[in-house]
Amino acid sequence: MKKIIITLDGYSSCGKSTLAKQLAAELDYVYIDSGAMYRAITLYFIQNRIDWNKPEEVAQALSNIQLEFVYNPLSGSSEMNLNGENVEHMIREMLVAEKVSEVAAVGAVREFAVAQQQEMGKQKGIVMDGRDIGTTVFPHAELKIFMTADTAIRVERRFKELYAKNKNITIHEIKENLELRDYIDTNREISPLRKAEDAIILDNSQLTPEDQLKLVLQWVDDAVMVKS
Ligand code: CDP
Ligand code: CDP
């Protein structure tokens, strides 16, 4: 079966990475979590007190950042490494979530991440999720999906996920963070979150992960057929 590029864009916590992982496993594709890259850059900026409003500081900091996805056989997925250190857990914390959309709006940061993402896609057989994958990173991808789900459902899903790890987290805090990030991501000047013209909309508010996988595998078959 011919391999293609699949892009998944959409709002926070609507199930992009869940679907991306399912597809990668089912199709034997490589999954790339572009959000993890922005989160790792944000972690570096916080840890090293970089002021992301100062272009010289940003340029200097970016030249010291090395990002790599390393497969962890224990979790069965690729995890984010920042300068050789596994930061997969740290980048999911609220400290990073609170700042990541500000950092991801900085032009130099986007150029740095997009160049690496495009390099990773050279081989096809890739499923990448994010905000600008179908519009900027891979505008010629064979299958583009724009995911969405009701806000209340997204908040509930993310709350369940984070509460399992941190009992101090509140649903209010999660809701505020998702809404703020969606606002900044949609309204920033460079590569804002938006549906690519040729993307298919997938509203999974009422779909289980199994339902959505079945549906999307059909779309993959169709996209591969067109390409062949
Ligand atoms: O998992 P969740 O949807 O909450 O977020 P994520 O995919 O880990 O992305 C975190 C943040 O990185 C987003 O809110 C965006 O600000 C930024 N991002 C971006 O600007 N462009 C991408 N392609 C991916 C993420
Ligand atoms: O990557 P993104 O931020 O878009 O979302 P995610 O981390 O894949 O999904 C957030 C949560 O929603 C996860 O706990 C998924 O198991 C759950 N989910 C769901 O309940 N139903 C779906 N159809 C998709 C995801």
Task: Give a quick precis of the structure.
The protein is 49% helix and 17% strand.
Q: Mind sketching the topology for me?
A:
Layout: E1 5-10, H1 16-27, E2 30-33, H2 34-47, H3 55-62, E3 67-72, E4 77-82, E5 85-86, H4 94-97, H5 100-104, H6 107-120, E6 126-130, H7 133-137, E7 143-148, H8 151-163, H9 171-187, E8 200-203, H10 209-227
Parallel strand pairs: 1-6, 1-7, 2-6, 7-8
Antiparallel strand pairs: 3-4, 4-5
Helix pairs in contact: 1-10, 2-6, 8-9
Bound molecules: cytidine-5'-diphosphate (CDP) (2 copies).
Radius of gyration using CA atoms only:
17 Å
Q: What is the approximate shape?
A: globular
How many individual domains? 1
Report the top-level CATH class: Alpha Beta
Number of helices in the DSSP assignment: 10
**Number of DSSP strand runs:** 8
Bound molecules: cytidine-5'-diphosphate
On the 0-100 scale, what is the average pLDDT? 96
What is the second-level CATH architecture? 3-Layer(aba) Sandwich
The largest sheet, given as strand count, sense and whether it forms a barrel, is:
5 strands, parallel
Structural class: alpha/beta
Domain Cytidylate kinase: 6-219
GO biological process, one term: pyrimidine nucleotide metabolic process
Subcellular location: Cytoplasm
GO molecular function, one term: CMP kinase activity
